[in-house]
Amino acid sequence: MALERPIGPILNGLPNQVPDTDPEETQEWLESLDAAIETGGRQRARYLMLRMLERARDSQVGLPSVTTTDYINTISPEQEPWFPGDEDMERRYRAWMRWNAAVMVHRAQHPDISVGGHISTYASQATLWEVGFNHFWRGRDHEGGGDQIFFQGHASPGIYARAYLEGRLSEADLDAFRQEKSKAREGVTVLPSYPHPRSMPEFWQFPTVSMGLGPMNAIYQAAFNKYLHNRGLKDTSQQQVWAFLGDGEMDEPESRGLLHVAANDELDNLTFVVNCNLQRLDGPVRGNGKIVQELESQFRGAGWNVIKVLWGRGWDNLLAKDASGALINLMNTTPDGDFQTYRANDGAWIRDHFFGRDPRTKELVKDWSDDDIWWKLKRGGHDYRKVFAAYQAAMNHTGQPTVILAHTIKGYSLGTHFAGRNATHQMKKMTLEDLKGFRDSLRIPITDEQLEADPYAPPYYHPGEDDEAIQYLKERRRQLGGYLPERRPSDARLPLPDEKIYDVAKKGSGKQNVATTMALVRIFKEWMRDKEFGKHLVPIIPDEARTFGMDSFFPTAKIYNVHGQNYTSVDADLMLAYKESESGQIWHVGINEAGSVAGLTAAGTSYDTQGVPMVPFYIFYSMFGFQRTGDSIWAAADQLTRGFMIGATAGRTTLAGEGLQHADGHSLLLASSNPAIRAYDPAYAYELAHILPDALRVMYGEDPQDVIYYLTVYNEPMKQPAEPDDVDVEGILAGMHKISGMQPAEEGKHVRLLASGVGVPWALEAQELLEQDWGVSSDVWSVTSWNELRREAMACDRDAFLDPQSERRVPYVTRRLSEGTGPVVATSDWMRAVQDQIAPWVPEDYYALGADGFGFADTRPAARRFFHIDGPSMAVKALQMLADRGEIDPQVPVQAAERYRLMDVNAGTSGTAGGDA
To answer: What whole-number distance in Å separates Cα of residue 866 and Cα of residue 202?
Structure first.
């Protein structure tokens, strides 16, 4: 006989062994709570309970923590609400969706195509989705605003199958699944493998298949909705965010790592639904344990409301008869690996190996046939009424986010070859026998002859537009505000700031040393002051505002906190006091780069999700951007995010003293791998004064583009020159412009010096050394964007390759460097590969210096000399290149290296050794 456990409403919670010494008084307390709920509502009752807990703690009354409950449904049958739909009707077209989703993937696995796909994930959660589609999820035309649904990526065939029945997709569209280019033609909507807004921009809203990002982004989407509401920019009070996740996905650190954010902000507009089919991609999530119990404990501990939907209605009578608690004990003690095995076998197996473990549970099913055990005892995630009850409870809950842990079977309804098998995630096609069995179980009116005609291409099923079930399906969506998913960007345009605000940056800094970070922040401050444009800015700062000189925003813009500020700040008497507010503008997310990018994504797609264009301005240590959160940035690009990423304290040598893990010399190279990123590395404030307004025009002007601007700025103070009268604005925006030119003193003794960012002064230093010490003239170019120069050059090459009959376009970098003569030397505070991006299109001898290797703590001049990227190093390399061309004596570069003590790090002079940023 299996060992019994104490049975009660809460495991590890209420001490059930303590007797009730005064049942009458207990009843009075319970009735008082009932009265508080009835008269004051759930929010009032919740407040009273929290105050009672607070008083109990003050009185040192020990209260056990509530971690996990019994392995049964949270909502009892008596608490279940009336189900308002026609369950038989909904079951009918749900079967059609199951069939079409599986057939779509199966057809895509035809031997002539073989592009893959996933069948089993949608099979496990079709019920979870259909309850939402039919009764809860509001479309874009609902009076309260549309809900935002993060669909589990591997189950996307189910969404396509529903859209087919709705008339939004055709059979030709379904047959274009995973064939985005080969099937692209007029009249066909090609279907990407997963939810990809960039691939299907009128359909998908949220990319979710990079597992772990969906949960994180859903939390910040819900938080951003509250942010918009509390700032008075839009009423989002009726909008809900739903995220559908896998139990295996919850092992990703991003999946659980930000749960506290949702709890702290009391995001009762957020619901997670974790599809607990107990399987990862290769096998059990917790074969020896219980993933549902683990997740319940963690979510409860993080402050979430937890609802478990584990067993279908067929279990209700058995549990009601379980007076001894033996059945609950079996449920509590059976590991997930066994539950998976049970479902892969028949009713007799379950009778012997589950119920047979305890004579009391075996007695419960003695009058049941094996078929009854197999068919009636469903998992809760496949029971419409159980799921509806959970969703309704989640919508009625206030003050906390909710997670629904739904027990399902991976590959449910697909047959014994699929359901619950370890390999089911990788199974992409069905045998003829599988197809026939699947058809029979779903009652699809397709004949054997139709299936046998071509087992690789079984027909889709649609009963016709006039079918009553199709009409019912469409009416449900009409009442809920339209079809989902749907992406519908707003036509609203932002009033962009007046050009005059950039004048201060164009004037230069005079005798004052100013870092480009400070120059950028000054412009941003002017943006904030603009009455119309300023309110659409979303400053996102991961706990380094003072490093970037943005603490001056605290008193006026204030830091957003859903609870306001209920304490007196320690610096309250200072001018730049730390101030929080419910309507604060600054999204100060803490030491949390992942959450920052999630916030950037939510704010940067508000033009679609909320119809309100917002301008996120995320500023961070450049090292902790693309290196730490590159996957999230890629997803942001997929979601068609617009906004600014500011990589501050950029470069490998400018952050003197910080060392290896802070010294960024490669984020520009990583940024170049993302097609949606426009990366700039400006040297001067006046360059920023042209790049920033152009970026606003590109992203928020008359013809907005779905791109993100990445600007690298530095903490090294230096004199900012005034904008020259003949400033080359086209060059600044295209990627390079000449800032200093010299006529060659002698033929063959001229070079071109290219640099970006903080490296531009080193090129000017090299220009001076070459002319004064060696009689070599040079031109200096400020390269504002190596990445954009390469992108434009590649586009020219592609045009020439694919359309050789047309006039060949010459890349911008080639045209500009064809204006002068002599070898070209490039430098920057980045690794050499950044500068080497333009090498194929430089029309002369070209060499790039770079800060390759790990960074380290030292003075700026010493670090630059160590990497040989400073002014003297540029000068020596230029002389070597002239010598190699036979244009100067080979001994000249040798003499120069000795003169400048090129191998002595203590001889470095390029850059400031200190000073405030």
So the answer is: 52
Both structure tokens of 284 = 């059990």
Could you tell me where the DSSP H helices lie in 211-252?
213-230
Q: Please give the Cα distance from 664 to 611 (Å, whole number).
A: 37
Place of tokens 């049975």: 7
User: Which residues have C-beta within 8 Å of that of residue 588, sequence separation ≥ 6?
Assistant: 541, 543, 545, 559, 560
pLDDT at 492 (0 to 100) = 84
Whole-angstrom CA distances from 802 to 186, 311, 588, 675 are 22, 60, 48, 20
The average pLDDT across 136-160 equals 95
What pLDDT does residue 424 have? Answer: 45
The residue whose two tokens read 């009932």 is 34
238/233 Cα distance (integer angstroms): 15
pLDDT of 726 above 60: yes
The full DSSP string for 692-756 is HHHHHHHHHSSS----EEEEE--S--EEPPPPPTT--HHHHHHTEEEEE----SSTT-EEEEEE-
SS3 content of the chain, % helix, strand, coil (to 5): 45, 10, 45
* Distant-in-sequence, close-in-space partners of 453: CB < 8 Å, separation ≥ 6: none
Q: Are 833 and 850 in contact (CB under 8 A)?
A: yes
CA distance 736 to 729: 10
- At 62-112, the pLDDT tens digits run 666 667 888 999 999 999 999 999 999 999 999 999 999 999 999 998 888
Helices (H), 16-155: 23-58, 87-108, 120-135
Preceding omega of 195 cis (within 30 degrees of 0): no
CB 90 within 8 A of CB 135: no
- What confidence category does residue 231 fall into, taking pLDDT thresholds of 50, 70 and 90? very high
Cα 350 from chain centroid?
42
Give the containing element (helix H, strand E) for 259.
helix 259-264
CB atoms within 10 A of CB 136: 18
Give the E-state strand segments of 216-341 in sequence order.
Answer: 241-246, 270-276, 305-309
Query: Per-residue pLDDT for 916 more than 80?
Result: no
| Tokens encoding 718 | 């230096």
To the nearest whole number, what is the mean pLDDT of the chain?
91
Fill in the DSSP letter of residue 268.
Answer: T
Q: Which tens digits make up the pLDDT trace of 378-388?
A: 999 999 999 99
Partners of 403 in the β-ladder: 272, 306
DSSP conformational letter for 177: B
Of all helices (H) and strands (E), which one includes residue 777? strand 777-783
Write the CB contacts of 115 (distance below 8 Å, at least 6 apart in sequence): 108, 109, 177, 178, 179, 193
pLDDT confidence of residue 65 = 63
Residues 6+ apart with CB under 8 A from 815: none
Report the predicted TM-score, pTM, of the whole model to 2 decimal places.
Answer: 0.92
pLDDT greater than 90 at residue 907:
yes
Q: Are 304 and 310 in contact (CB under 8 A)?
A: no
